[in-house]
Amino acid sequence: MPLRIFTANLYNGRAQPNGLAAVLRAVRPDVVAVQELSENAAAVLSDWGVSRLLDPDDNTTGMGLALNTDATFDRLEFPHRNPVRARFDGAPWGFECVEIVGTHLVNPISWPWSDSRRLRVAEATALEQLAVEPTPTRVIVGDFNSSPAWALYRRMRRFAVDAAVAADTARATWGYFPRSPAMLRIDHAFIQGARSLGTRPVRIPGSDHRALVVDLVPAED
């Protein structure tokens, strides 16, 4: 049985709560990681799963994690938005301890560009420091605001596996408007100590991002 992770940017409250609830019922994930979480979506997740850390806000900084198993949670200290982290027993899926990190990196075109570049370099350094901390399985998911053409994405791949590329299922996840075609792949799942069975984008009504659904099993020896 694979561990199914669902990550989505909820467009700062514009994703439709009923649509999000319907997608969750259809996808049936084990882990939900959300960015740009506002109160309306937090109300949906407050009734989902077994354990959760939800920190909604209305200025694109809202973040949350919800799981269908018991977990311990904390917030990491990062240069821009602080990621949410959960650790849990992965035995039901064949893992040992699993660490899930939900993150949302600064937009590279936010003005002033010099500040955005400085923050992105600092965020990448913080992620590298996180990646060397020992744990059997780590999954870093979220809106990285980085397509594979960007240096930050390439830097991530130095120390973690892109779950979409590993399974040959890479697809665009973001469009200019909620109803426009997806044009860029900027939502990712980077994995350590796991093997990807595949990823797929899923439309959430009202959001400019597709959710990314990721299925993982233990890494082969």
How do the helices and strands line up, and which of them pair or pack?
Elements: E1 3-9, H1 17-27, E2 31-35, H2 39-45, E3 51-55, E4 63-67, E5 72-75, E6 84-89, E7 97-104, H3 113-131, E8 137-143, H4 151-156, E9 161-162, H5 163-166, E10 187-192, E11 194-203, E12 210-218
Parallel strand pairs: 1-2, 7-8
Antiparallel strand pairs: 1-12, 2-4, 3-4, 5-6, 6-7, 8-10, 9-10, 11-12
Helix pairs in contact: 1-2
How would you characterize this protein structure?
- 21% of the residues lie in helices and 33% in strands.
- It has 221 residues and is an alpha+beta fold.
- The chain has one domain: Deoxyribonuclease I, Chain A (4-Layer Sandwich).
- The strands form two sheets. The chain has a six-stranded mixed β-sheet with strand order 3-4-2-1-12-11. A six-stranded mixed β-sheet has the order 5-6-7-8-10-9.
- Helix 1 packs parallel to helix 2.
- It starts with a strand and ends with a strand.
Q: Radius of gyration, rounded?
A: 16 Å
Give the helix tally: 5
The CATH first-level class comes to: Alpha Beta
- Topology pattern, helix = H, strand = E: EHEHEEEEEHEHEHEEE
Query: For this structure, what is the CATH homologous superfamily?
Result: Endonuclease/exonuclease/phosphatase
List the main descriptive attributes of the protein structure presented here.
single chain; 221 residues; alpha+beta; Deoxyribonuclease I, Chain A; six-stranded mixed beta sheet; 5 helices
